[in-house]
Design goal:
This protein is α+β, with helices and mostly antiparallel strands and 339 residues long. The chain is 23% helix and 27% strand. It has a 5-stranded antiparallel beta sheet with strand order 6-7-12-10-11. Strands 1-2-5-3 form a 4-stranded mixed beta sheet, with no helix packed on it. It has a 4-stranded antiparallel beta sheet with strand order 13-19-18-17, with helices on one face. A hairpin with a 2-residue loop joins strand 17 and strand 18. The longest helix has 19 residues. Bound molecules: flavin-adenine dinucleotide. The site of flavin-adenine dinucleotide has 33 residues, from strand 8, strand 12 and strand 13.
Length: 339
């Protein structure tokens, strides 16, 4: 395993932000992860785990060790009449994994087609899109405890999955290196076309296949979301806030264009994009950063943008939304700091 010094992270994050890591390594196995963490050069240093950096904002140089797990194997761990369990290395590209399943007729992750990132990050924020979430198929998460170097395994209920949430963003934040994720996939899948855009695209398909769903979703995403290869972005920058139903209903009385989405009993999800748009930020550019013209939830980092500049812009949006609507919008993107 090669350990690099002063590694430039610009190509390792989809915002394309410049930052350097004092140390960087991409261990290819559990053994290599343990070897790396046991190296006394790094014992006292902060450690950051990344996948493809598609949900990460580098605010400054990272004064520590950046670890990018490159565990790439996929194996069937169990099979029954109805389903199979697939143990997938953390370094596998998420969308390649989805394609792998769709090609074999294994159902459950097809609605998550086209999401950038690595499999190891999928349980961290319980990735979700088009009526499906990673938690619907994840059964086990294997990780290494960064402090004790012990190998641990959590079942899905132990991961405390929620909307863009899990134990890896709470109690275990910054304490784990996820090495494998095990998914349970259906051998006789029933496709999920409940999401309006997907239903509309597939209205003429009689019995849509997994492949039809994947293609429809990739097409919708391409039409809606900016490509990070063209302009730096991290997809949705903020989470949709969840507020009390009574509060949301009052807000709706004075804002008839507001759409509400169901959440847990007594609570409602409000689209953060609507709040940001109402505050006049949609399509706005300030120096090297901005908000996408079609999608107010997507913040853009143009060439030359710094992480600090983007963070300050995001904080300005957050403050404006709070002042106008008394609603806090939280960042979905992970902001890194080593100090
Ligand atoms: C254009 C675009 C569209 C997007 N669309 C969606 C979408 O539809 N739905 C959605 O949910 N997300 C979406 N995202 C966000 C992003 O793709 C996901 O959050 C993805 O899971 C991030 O994967 P990554 O490997 O890039 O993670 P990174 O950004 O590298 O890391 C994200 C977090 O996970 C941690 N982490 C990463 N790997 C590990 C590991 N092996 N062990 C422990 N911790 C780890 C990191 O420390 C960090 O806190 C989008 C992003 C972009 C750029």
């Amino acid at each position: 395993m090669i350990v690099e010094r002063d590694k430039d992270l610009k190509r390792l994050n989809t915002l394309g932000l410049s930052a350097k890591a004092v140390w960087y390594a991409a261990p290819g196995s559990v053994k290599e992860v343990i070897e790396l963490l046991s190296d006394t050069r790094f014992t006292a240093l902060p450690k950051l785990v990344i996948g493809s950096g598609s949900n990460t904002l580098f605010c400054e140089d990272y004064n520590g060790l950046v670890v990018r797990p490159a565990i790439m194997d996929i194996s069937i761990s169990e099979i029954s009449d109805k389903s199979l369990k697939l143990k997938v290395g953390a370094g596998v590209d998420w969308d390649k994994f989805v394609a792998y399943c769709v090609d074999r007729g294994w159902g459950g992750v097809e609605n998550l087609s086209g999401i950038p990132g690595c499999v190891g990050a999928s349980p961290v924020q319980n990735i979700g899109a088009y009526g499906s979430e990673a938690k619907d198929t994840i059964v086990l998460v294997d990780y290494i405890d960064i402090c004790t170097l012990q190998q641990r395994r959590l079942t899905a209920p132990e991961c405390h999955f929620g909307y863009r949430e899990s134990i890896f963003k709470q109690e275990l934040k910054g304490k784990t290196i996820i090495t494998y994720v095990t998914f349970e996939l259906a051998l006789n899948p029933v496709v999920n076309t409940t999401y309006a855009d997907v239903k509309e695209r597939l209205k003429s398909a009689e019995n849509p296949t997994l492949y039809d769903i994947r293609k429809a979703i990739i097409d919708i995403r391409k039409a809606k979301l900016p490509d990070p290869a063209e302009v730096g972005n991290a997809g949705s920058f903020f989470k949709n806030p969840i507020v009390e139903e009574s509060f949301a209903e009052k807000l709706m009385e004075s804002n008839p264009t507001l759409r509400l989405y169901p959440s847990s009993p007594g609570f409602t999800k409000i689209p953060a994009a609507w709040l940001i748009e109402q505050c006049g930020f949609k399509g706005v550019r300030e120096l090297n950063v901005g908000v996408h013209k079609n999608h107010a939830l997507v913040l853009l980092a143009y060439e030359g943008a710094t992480g600090r500049e983007l963070l300050e812009f995001a904080q300005k949006i957050k403050r404006t939304v709070k002042a106008r609507f008394s609603i806090d919008i939280d960042m979905e993107v992970n902001v890194t700091a080593s100090s």
